[in-house]
């Protein structure tokens, strides 16, 4: 009888250990939320003139902090009282082994609904914009 109780206790103990060790919560990875940061623009190339309601494309060259940085979006920014645009880059939360970044490029689309002269301004530094002037006929 003692042998049966001992075996029963050992079986229950074994099954308990097996059931807890098979829990798959260790396989779950934490959410990989990238870090978003403004990238500074070094160049704007594209047409200097256009027509009303025509979509114009401008190539925006920007620098990221490390080679793991990638384009995320273009957002509005204000420096002092001047409104402009900035490129937002995303960086993975892990360590980046590629430290030397190359200049990156993205395309910005501009469409004017009226005639006039427009300035497309992208953040060049913490205190100034890089400006491209466009005349719309």
Provide a descriptive summary of the structure in words:
The structure is a single chain. This protein has 137 residues and is mostly beta strands. It is 15% helix and 48% strand. The chain has 1 helix and 8 strands; from the N terminus they run αββββββββ. A 5-stranded antiparallel beta sheet has the order 4-5-1-3-6, with no helix packed on it.
Write a brief caption for the model.
With 137 residues, the chain is mostly beta strands.
Major beta sheet summary:
5 strands, antiparallel
In the predicted model, the low-confidence regions spanning at least 5 consecutive residues are: none
Distance between the termini: 101 Å
Portion of residues in beta strands equals over 45%
Outline type: elongated
Relative helix content: 10-25%
Strand order of the largest sheet: 4-5-1-3-6
What's the total number of strands?
Answer: 8
- The arrangement of helices and strands along the chain is HEEEEEEEE
Compute the gyration radius: what is it?
28 Å
Mean pLDDT: 86
Structural class label: mainly beta
Oligomer: single chain
Q: How many separate helices?
A: 1
């Amino acid at each position: 009888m003692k042998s049966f109780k001992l075996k029963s206790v050992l079986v229950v103990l074994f099954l308990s250990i097996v059931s807890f060790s098979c829990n798959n919560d260790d396989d779950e990875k934490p959410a990989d939320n990238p870090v978003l940061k403004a990238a500074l623009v070094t160049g704007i190339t594209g047409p200097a003139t256009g027509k009303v309601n025509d979509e114009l494309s401008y190539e925006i060259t920007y620098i990221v902090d490390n080679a793991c940085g990638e384009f995320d979006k273009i957002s509005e920014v204000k420096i002092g009282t001047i409104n402009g645009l900035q490129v937002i880059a995303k960086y993975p939360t892990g360590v980046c082994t590629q430290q030397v970044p190359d200049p990156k490029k993205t395309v910005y689309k501009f469409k004017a609904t009226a005639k006039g002269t427009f300035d497309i301004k992208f953040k060049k530094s913490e205190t100034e914009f890089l400006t491209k002037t466009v005349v719309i006929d």
